[in-house]
């Protein structure tokens, strides 16, 4: 597996209003808001930082706003952009790691496979087209 960069990181929040008060009000992070999903591409060190409401994470992973009771609730998420999402997911599955879901293209155009780390971190293996380096222009 070839990891190219960290595409994004942030907490998964069961209480988006409390997270907004902490990250936006107390820490002063200037977010764009898509409903309760707060995000920014303006912090150095990560191409995307977002407070992801747990209901939205559940919907993205399982197709329902309720996180499954038999699956540990993630405290945070991280996405690694990889050279080949399907191959990376297959490699992890072959190594005994249980995927939350295999490679699929999300409505916003990103391809993702996800799994939970041993610590309960929601880990995405991603292809994020708008974050990839553009080829140099021909002379």
Can you count the helices?
Answer: 3
**Helix percentage:** 10-25%
The average pLDDT is 89
Structural class: alpha+beta
SSE string, helix = H, strand = E? EHEEEHEHEEE
Walkthrough of the structure:
This protein is 22% helix and 35% strand. It is an alpha+beta fold and 139 residues long. An eight-stranded mixed sheet has the order 2-3-4-1-5-8-7-6. Strand 3 and strand 4 form a beta hairpin. The chain is globular. 24% of the residues are buried. The mean pLDDT is 89.
Explain briefly what this protein structure is.
With 139 residues, the chain is α+β, with helices and mostly antiparallel strands. 22% of the residues lie in helices and 35% in strands.
Task: Please supply descriptive tags for the structure shown above.
139 residues
What is the secondary structure topology, with strand pairs?
Layout: E1 3-13, H1 16-26, E2 32-34, E3 37-40, E4 49-53, H2 54-62, E5 76-82, H3 85-94, E6 99-105, E7 111-116, E8 122-127
Parallel strand pairs: 1-4, 5-8
Antiparallel strand pairs: 1-5, 2-3, 3-4, 6-7, 7-8
